[in-house]
Model the fold of this input.
Amino acid sequence: MRSSSLWIWMILIFASGLLLSACGGVTSEAAIPEPAKIEADGRITLTEMASQRLGLQTAPISEAQVGGGMQTVVPYAAVLYGQHGETWVYVSPEPLVFLRQPITVGDIEGDAGVLLEGPPVGTQVVTSGAAELFGVESGLDEGH
Done:
């Protein structure tokens, strides 16, 4: 009996810690940092530390041989889908600055999306951390 009571207490303490963490009662190094600034045009400027914590990585939009011709392609990891079927990427026009850019994907070939409409070849797009960047943009990291 005694060992089962101990286990129950340990579980309750662990669950309490999780609840406090979820409600912001306990801070975490992994918490999503606040952006330095969000402009009216949607431009997000992050600090270097915020960018590192979000794990942001970028890659350029490129051209590739697809279906018998050269096509503009975007790394599929960069493509985000909205709840109404809209698609976009986050472009990085300059270091630590990110902006949502609508795109139209015509087809998916392996790990690339073939663009019908979108930013030009060479544009840097966020390939890792885009969902976290969306959370920062939409305020999903606030209010826990």
In short: Confidence is low (pLDDT under 50) at residues 3-30.
